[in-house]
Structures are given as structure tokens and as C-alpha cells.
Amino acid sequence: AFRAIGARRVLVLGDGMLVETVREEITVACARFGGQVRHRQDQAGERFDLVLALTGALPAMPTAADAGHPFLGSDAAIATWQYGWRGAPEALGGEGFVLTRREEVTVVLADEPRGLLYGLFEVVRLGESAFGSGLGAAIHRPAMRLRMINHWDNVDAHPVMGQVERGYAGGSLFWQDGLPRRDLARVQAYGRLLAACGINAATVNNVNVHRAETHLLTDRLGEVAAIARVLRPYGVRVHLSVNFAAPIVLGALATADPLDPAVRDWWASATRRVYEAIPDFGGYVVKADSEGQPGPFAYGRSHAEGADMLADAVAPFGGVVHWRAFVYNHRQDWRDRSTDRARAAYDHFVPLDGRFRDNVIVQVKHGPMDFQVREPVSPVIAAMPATRVAVEVQATQEYTGQQRHICYLGPLWSSVLRFAPHGPDGSTVADIVAGGGGFVAVSNAGADHFWTGHPLAQANLYAAGRLAWQPTADPTALLDEWIGLTFNPATGDDAEPVRRTLHLLMDDSWRTYEQYTAPLGIGFMVRPGHHYGPDVDGYEYTPWGTYHFADRDGVGVDRTRASGTGFTGQYPEPWSQIYESLDDCPDELLLFFHHVGFRHVLHNGSTVIQHIYDTHFAGAERVAEMRQQWHELDGLVDPALFTRVVALLEEQVRSAEEWRDQINTYFFRKSGVPDAKGRPIY
Ligand code: BDP
């Protein structure tokens, strides 16, 4: 993808670590593709094809007397741009840049080195078209200041969860069997990849902070500092997941009570040492009082008190605390219909709105449950106007095929970001989180050769970063960008047929996955523990709060105010009414909000039971087609990649059929209603 740049004459102006990164990138590209990179203009009148410059590094405006100015005076066009942007420097911000082209020179101008780096990657994305006459002038700035990746990496391989919790891409990029990886070249390449996607922050360790990982805060801090050193030149700041009980585990205190002065002191000094080692450290991420993790509840304190204590520790250094809202009772009595896991985050956090410090970000999963293939948008996001809120999505495909299935999640995340909680005229989720906490994706990358296990799952990492930068971007267009960057003639691929086929395979793959798995917003019909493949009643009588309530008459969770858990009441209008109403509730979320009979008629005219049958047959059939379509790329892409995807598609076909058969049979046996089309149901 660097081919277009590498073949040209490039001028890079400015100083600083990230400007060096830009120079280095271009130097490597030129060595490969035969261009030239310069640090300054040596001869008057020397022309370049591409100029990347910090505005502060541009020479003073040439005056008439400088007609023979040895530098840009000879190129009046560049001086004009310089003048133009000096006029409104605040327009660019710390990460923004201007990209424009006049008189056959493509120019990137940025006020800060980070902007120049992102400008470089924009030019890379555009390829040849960055050098065409069609390129108009535009200012690019990220919608969100925080565009973050969370790794769920363990230092010690966990006996059940392995090296990376919910990781489907080989081992951790950072640790192996309890030790840091010595060679960080891969981490450096990862930093480059993150920057190319627009991501600027990363936690390196699991939100479930086990014993060894707890030590990353203190005696193993050097390991984090080493990672930070490698990611820094790509504009990626390191954050750390911390154990709320660290003062007990590490500091030998008797308590982790957030109001205890000794505890506060302990965090203050531990944090000071962190900043001594990592001056640009981003801050802490905390999973507290959730799924067995310690938290403030043990001391009768609120989550605001817990979060604020840590916020005070990082505040002097400009750090932030991402405090996760994923708090619910995972030991509930399944016979008790009065508790509803979907309600939990709102019930815990909304009463605390306005009580968090300015540098606390409440990090909310995009749906009220847990990264299911289809959920409504979490009502928490719109309900805390006095709090900074971030939305968290899961790039690692825990519930969406575990990187064995093709499932491009861009359309799902885009629909979350575009959702307008107060109706079409109100602000969107993207607006809300852009004003506060930003966008967080749980990483899907690991030590695997293709980074993400399934090579096509890379598109999810890419889309996560790009949507954080520009939430209104069309996810199909982002996929197209990713295809162009990944499969191109420079890597020996035959680009056009590859592009066509990948769109066929990936554009709708999320909806296809939904079709053959859990219908109409029901979720969680997965095998307990590892969460791969169907298990119709796997979670039905467990303490996790994830039920579908199927019986002989119908299926779905009644979350209405009228007769159910009242969850619909957590939404503002118009959604509260829409979800409450059986008539208005969108089909795809029907069973999330309502318990209905199998013969209930959907908006699409089908009955619930017939829809379940139809989508499962259609989804599995579509996957078989996808397998065939992929085979058309034999010989057109890297053979190792081709073979990997062949094997994965075999598994996807098998798994989709398994889903189809088990789900259809289950609902047939429950309902006794035969398939109107007479297809085999067992
Ligand atoms: C669930 C995962 C679990 C995570 C948890 C979380 O199954 O491994 O620890 O989310 O987000 O989806 O904390």
C-alpha cells in the first residue's frame, strides 16, 4: 500500500519522534519502490510530488523581496497553503491534518507530529488517487479523542482462559508463559498497524487482573514501560488494567477501601512511580465488582467513590480512569424472574451521574447484555449527561464466530454509533461518546501470523479504529479501504477480483451470522464456558442471567413495563414506547423485549417460528455459497492466506449447519409447528 508513495519524491519537514516515524516509513517505502525522501529542499526550484510538513517547520512567508527564496518561495502554491493554515491553527488540533493538492504537489500539513503521522496513513490509504487531480482540499480530524484497544492478555497463561482471554489469534503479543516477549519487533509492527487504523491508546493486560498481572503496576512495571517505548513512536499511549485490591495484594494493606487515607496514599505513590517510568502513561482501566473482581462494594462504597479515588491518583499527571459499567449479579437465582441482567448497568450507574471526577470515563458495553450478535443499544449511554461515557465493542469475536467464522462487524458498530437515543433529531451515540470518553474495542489481535487468526478478521480491527476516527463512515466503504490496503498488486494479489469477492463474502457476513445463530435478539444460545457453537439450553438454568424462556407456547424475555422486568423504562422516548409496544418493536429485537407465541406475526409477514426456520436455512445455505466464492480466489491471493481461509470456511459451513439443525429442531420440538416449506427438521 506504500507503493504510490515510495515511487515518488517526498519532502518531510519538521522535528520530533513521530515526524521521524513518518520519515522512516517513507524511507522504507522508497527503498522498496524507488522514490526519494528529503528532509529539506536543497536547490531552489526543486520540485516534490509529496510534501508532509509541520506548520511550525515551514519557513516564513516569502515576500516580494524574496523572489529568489531558495525554499518554498519558488513554489507559491505551498506558501499559500502555509499562509492559509497559519491563519486558523486551531482548526487542526493535535491529531488533525490538511490534505490538499495544487500544481501537482500533494501536501499534508499538521500542527503536531501526530497529525502528520495520520496524514501519512491517509495518503497511503488513497494510494495513487492521492496524486491525482481529483484530490480536493480537506481537513481531517478525529471525531473522538480517545480511540482505544483493550487487550485481554494474561501474563501467566490462565488454566481455563489461556494466554489471551477470549483470544482467537494465537498467543499474546506481549507475554508468553509468564514472561514478557523479548523481541518486541512484532509489537512495533503492531503499533504501526494501530496507527494506520487511527488507534491511539491501548491497554495491554486483561480486565480480569489475576495475580501475576496485578504486579504490572509495581515490580513488573518495566515490562509495561518496554511496550510503551515501542508503541510511542506510533502515537499509541499505553494504559493498564488494574486490580482494585492492589493495595492488599501488593501493598500488604489490610483494606482497599477507597476512602481510607492509607489506601489513597498507596495509589498516589504507585501512580507516581508509573509516571516516572512512563511519562505519557494513559491511565487505568478497571473492572470492579464484576464477575468476581474486587471493588468498592466490599467496603460499602459506591463505584463513584472507587473511581474517584483512582482518578485523584492519576489527575496530577493528566491520566484518566476508564471505569467499566459491566456490573451485574452473575450468581442470580434463575427461578427469580424479578432480576434482569439487562437492567443492571443502568441501575448501578445512572444514579451516580454527576458524581464522577472529570477524568473518569464510564466505559459501557454497546448493549445491555454482553456483545451478542444483536442487542439494543445500552440505555446507559444516553442516561449520564453529566459523566464522560465511552462505548465498548468487542473486536475479538467471542460471540460472533471466534475468528473461525467470517463476521465483519463494521455494520453492527456503525448502527450503534448512529443510534439516536432521543429520536432522529437528537444526538447520536457517536456524538455522546465523542464529547466524553471515546470508543474502545476489545482487541482481536495476537501472535498469529495473520494477526487475527482468521485473516479476514483484520477488517474488524481496521473498522474499529476508523469508526472511532469517523463514526459516520460507511462500514462498507471502510471494508473497501481495508481490502485495498491488504490485498494489492504490491503483494502479488490480483486486486480487482479479490475486491469483488471479498465484498460478496464480507459485506453482509454479520447478518448472515445472525441468521444461522440466535434469532430475533434472543442471544446466548451458546455453549457455556467457551461460547462457541449452539447449546439451546446451555445457559437457561444457570446463575448468569442470560435466559430465553422458551416453552411450548413461545419464546423471548418480557422486559416491558406493563408485565415484564421494566427494562424498556430505562430508555428515553421515543424508544421506550417503541420497545414497549409489541406492534412497534423492530423484528430483530422482538425477543429481547417480548415473550411471544410461536405464531406471532412479525412485521415482515412471517410468523416467529417460520422466521426462525427460514433464516437458519438461508444462513447456512449462504455460508456454503461463501465457501464456493472464496475458491474463485485460488491463485489470486497469497497461497498461505488462501489455504487458511479454505480451512476456516470448512469449519464455518459445518458450524452453520450445526446451528441450523439444533436451533430449528429445538424450536420445532418445543412448538410442534412444522416448517411450512417441509424442509428437514429432526
Ligand atoms: C464477557 C467475557 C469474559 C469477560 C467479560 C468482561 O465472556 O471473558 O471477562 O465479558 O467484559 O463477554 O469483563
UniProtKB/TrEMBL annotation:
Protein's UniProt keywords contain Transmembrane helix: no
One of the protein's GO biological processes: xylan catabolic process
Family classification: Belongs to the glycosyl hydrolase 67 family.
Record's keyword annotation contains Hydrolase: yes
GO CC list: extracellular region
Species in which this protein is naturally found: Actinoplanes derwentensis
SUPFAM superfamilies found in the cross-reference section: (Trans)glycosidases, beta-N-acetylhexosaminidase-like domain
Domain Glycosyl hydrolase family 67 C-terminal: 452-679
Pfam family, one: Glyco_hydro_67M
Molecular-function GO term, any one: xylan alpha-1,2-glucuronosidase activity
Residues in Glycosyl hydrolase family 67 catalytic domain copies: 139-451
Protein's recorded name: Alpha-glucuronidase
Residue numbers annotated as active site: 291, 370, 398
InterPro entries: A-glucoronidase_C_sf, GH, Glyco_hydro_67_aGlcAse, Glyco_hydro_67_C, Glyco_hydro_67_cat, Hex-like_dom2
Record key words, sorted: Carbohydrate metabolism, Glycosidase, Hydrolase, Polysaccharide degradation, Xylan degradation
Biological classification of the source: Bacteria, Bacillati, Actinomycetota, Actinomycetes, Micromonosporales
